[in-house]
Design goal:
35% strand, 35% helix, single chain, two-stranded antiparallel ribbon, alpha+beta
Length: 162
């Protein structure tokens, strides 16, 4: 018997569990990511179609351009990694990548701006306002098979940190 720990959860795996998973994999050869999901679904309950659609959506290829920067500290090429796979994206050049790498590339940073205003007593006050901005300016040149869904996802993802 083997014990697998993930955070605070423990799962005991016996030889019978491994044989059941192996049997399922042999009977149904499929794409690697789907095979992993099927193995987990046999042991831990059935996964829904929405999750499989999300995986397929993140595997779609998109064409992006990471904008140039005039900062002397700007990284070029920009490294982007998912699950141990690293892509180096050259600034200013169209690059075809899977959407999961675009998801990892989207990072929201905050700058602080000082704003003057008048309060209710007509006294001048100063306050600090956090202003969100993208760490890397990204343009999507080709959204993939479903551009409307992709645009909505991109807008949601860019506003997620706000």
């Amino acid at each position: 018997m083997t014990t697998i720990r993930r955070g605070k959860n423990e799962v005991k795996v016996t030889n019978e569990d491994v044989n059941e998973i192996t049997q399922t994999v042999i009977e149904h050869p499929v794409h690697e990511e789907q095979r992993i999901v099927e193995c987990h679904s046999n042991k831990f309950g059935k996964l829904d179609d929405e999750y499989m659609q999300w995986i397929a959506f993140m595997e779609e290829e998109v064409v992006i351009v990471v904008g140039l920067s005039d900062s002397e500290f700007a990284v070029d090429p920009v490294p982007c990694g998912v699950n141990g796979t690293i892509h180096k994206i050259k600034r200013g050049e169209p690059t075809k990548i899977k959407r999961m790498f675009l998801d990892a590339l989207i990072q929201i940073e905050f700058t602080v701006k000082t704003v003057e205003y008048e309060d209710d007593n007509r006294l001048k006050q100063t306050k600090l306002v956090k202003m969100p901005k993208m760490a890397y300016p990204i343009s999507i040149m080709d959204h993939g098979p479903d551009p409307v869904k992709s645009q909505r996802w991109f807008q949601w993802r860019c506003n997620e940190g706000v």
